[in-house]
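Q: Give me a protein?
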Amino acid sequence: MCTFAVIAHRHSTTNTRLGSVLSPAEALARLGRGDVALGRLDILPSLDGVEPGLWALDRLAALGVTVLNGRRTLIAAHDKLATAAALEPPLVLKPRFGSWGEDVIRCDDEAGVDSGLALLRTRAWYDATGALAQKLVAPRGYDLRIVVAGGSVIGAVRRIAAPGEWRTNVALGARREPVSPPEEARMIALGAAAAVGGDLVGIDLLPSDLGTWVVLEVNGAVDFNGTYALGDDVFDEARRALDSRALVREEPAA
């Protein structure tokens, strides 16, 4: 029987509910051909890159381990420069490797851009990676976070921004509400996950002025809980989808 392990540095609720948590070094020592590893390396707290261990995911694959959310996927999901380009205001400045809404600045005019960049230049991560500029999608006070696992939508919530806050990060006071996302949002989320090769990712969607949805971010180490459930237990759904994806990955080698 194969071993399923989550490769991460944090023993978060999401990680432990998905499976046994191993550090990259532990995974190399314990996993072998036929086992399955799910990459869940997250953004560094310093916002200047991804947690160490991406190289280990490539090494595990070379050893015959079926790797889900591999190195290329996590880089594409975490590095916001990979999917966006700087635009004229109104825009949003953010760390290239960002999370939790930290150091995300809304700039409504050129003066705002200048002051925003001046502030970001004081951050330790700025010299290492620079900042990313994204065109501002007019805030509606909420967004959708959809969790995609193994090519299926297995969870979703609507995130409602805190009073006086335009960002919808839970770390900044937003609250989660259960939601069954519309079909168009599901299809866009599936397309975004496929674009980065994501086996388990979170897709943040904003309602746009055109009556559709805009992909804001892809999260390669998304945290979720029971609120995300679309029916059955969301962690059971995630594991079933990932097990199916792992079997598909194993077939060519077999």
